[in-house]
Write a structure and sequence with these properties.
By secondary structure, the protein is α/β, with parallel strands linked by helices. Helices cover about 20% and strands about 20% of the residues. The chain contains seven helices and 14 strands. The strands form two sheets. Strands 4-3-2-1-12-13-14 form a seven-stranded mixed β-sheet. Strands 5-6-7-8-10-9-11 form a seven-stranded mixed β-sheet, with helices on one face. The longest helix is centred in the first third of the chain and has 17 residues. The two termini are about 35 Å apart.
Length: about 400
């Protein structure tokens, strides 16, 4: 859920059970036509959503030329990647952050972008032709003409309750939208993208692994067996990630997932999201297991949104060298308070902003930009660099 929304009264209730406890919980969020559907109308609308099986990769529609992935590092030997999260509000603040990012991208030669989920607030798209794709993605990001590696957030998979993550099948609309946009890149609900290096053996310089974290971090219990925390979808995704990370020969491995592993913001860390420490869903305990058993010690970075803050956290013995970065302030901002005590290199809990990841054979870096939304200008707030020798030993 978002910082300005209700939290579930108990872990692992279904959406119907949650709403039945207090009818006020099911009131619409007064933002747009994306208001919460209730009663028979809700049932009709949800029945029209796609089936429960993962969507296949979209095929480009005739006349839609996708912006190409970078063919190689720039003249300095690195890739520059824009990182944003929780952007899709359609508000003036989102447009201001995007305008500031556009200037930085042009100045720094950014060739790729990442969107860390909650791409279309508050309820996600109704179908692949939903005009909110234009209002909340294409419009703000016009001029940042690069591929955007997109992942699904809890608001992209809303059911009856906005941001619940309770209807994962809704995310299929965002996969299908790849056929309609030159910049939106989501060939499947989870996928990988490898960018080449100049090495003679052809090994990639960096590989991104995009996850769908919703079925193991929803604020309600999943009712579709396909998306249960231990159902066929999550078993398949876990097996894919394990194999893909093991097979990757990339110098740098970066995992993209909406929900963070560790986090000092309001939502907390996987295994204790929003103060819950029990249950298969609300606490995110099984996402913590996925990160710790499959990702930690094998990937260099986990990039996440969900919390509307920006944090460059330090690796811990438990993460075995894998570093968590939280970047979820492109559309909304936090309340200015720190809730956790994980060691951090830099963090801000109030500003809106974005980051730029730099990757070369010798080092990985991140530049953190805060944005003055009144003037649409970015301020370089922090830079961190990690030499290859200091990165995760695999």
């Amino acid at each position: 859920m978002c910082d300005d929304e209700l939290e579930p009264p108990a872990p692992d209730l279904t959406e119907d059970q949650w709403s039945a406890l207090d009818p006020a919980v099911a009131r619409p969020v007064p933002l747009s036509r994306r208001a919460l559907l209730t009663g028979a109308a809700a049932g009709m609308a949800l029945a029209a959503l796609p089936g429960t099986h993962p969507a296949r990769a979209a095929t480009a529609r005739p006349g839609t030329a996708a912006f190409p992935l970078p063919a190689g590092p720039d003249r300095t030997g690195q890739y520059r990647v824009l990182v944003t999260g929780d952007a899709g509000t359609g508000t003036a603040e989102q447009y201001a952050v995007a305008a500031a990012a556009r200037d930085v991208c042009a100045a720094e030669g950014v060739g790729l972008a990442v969107g860390l989920g909650d791409n279309l607030y508050e309820n996600g798209p109704e179908d692949a032709g939903d005009p909110e794709f234009t209002e909340k993605f294409e419009g703000p990001n016009a001029g940042i003409d690069v591929p955007w590696l997109m992942v699904l957030g809890n608001h992209d998979c809303s059911g009856l309750i906005p941001g619940s993550g309770g209807r994962p099948a809704r995310g299929d609309h965002e996969v299908a939208y790849s056929a309609r946009s030159p910049r939106w890149y989501m060939p499947a609900r989870h996928y990988s993208v490898a960018l080449p290096s100049a090495r003679a053996d052809g090994a990639p310089l960096v590989e991104f692994f995009a996850l769908d974290t919703n079925p193991v971090a929803s604020t309600v219990a999943q009712t579709d067996p396909h998306y249960h925390w231990n159902g066929p979808y999550m078993r398949g995704q876990r097996d894919w990630l394990d194999r893909a990370l093991g097979a990757s020969r990339a110098t740098w491995k970066v995992v993209l997932g909406h929900h963070p592993y560790v986090n000092n913001g309001k939502h907390g860390s996987a295994g204790s999201y929003d103060g819950f420490t029990v249950g298969h869903y609300t606490s995110g305990v099984h996402l913590r297991e996925l990160y710790e058993e499959v990702v930690c010690g094998r990937a260099d970075l986990i990039l996440s949104g969900h919390d509307h803050t920006m944090q460059v956290l330090e690796p811990t013995p438990r993460s075995r060298g894998t570093r968590q970065i939280v970047c979820g302030a492109a559309g909304k901002s936090g309340d200015g308070r720190r809730y956790g005590s994980h060691p951090a290199r830099w963090q801000d809990f109030a500003a809106r902003g974005f980051m730029v990841l730099g990757v070369s054979a010798a080092a990985c870096s991140v530049d953190v930009y805060t944005v003055d939304t009144r003037t649409r200008t970015a301020h370089l707030a922090h830079t961190a660099t990690w030499p290859r020798a200091a990165a995760t030993a695999r």
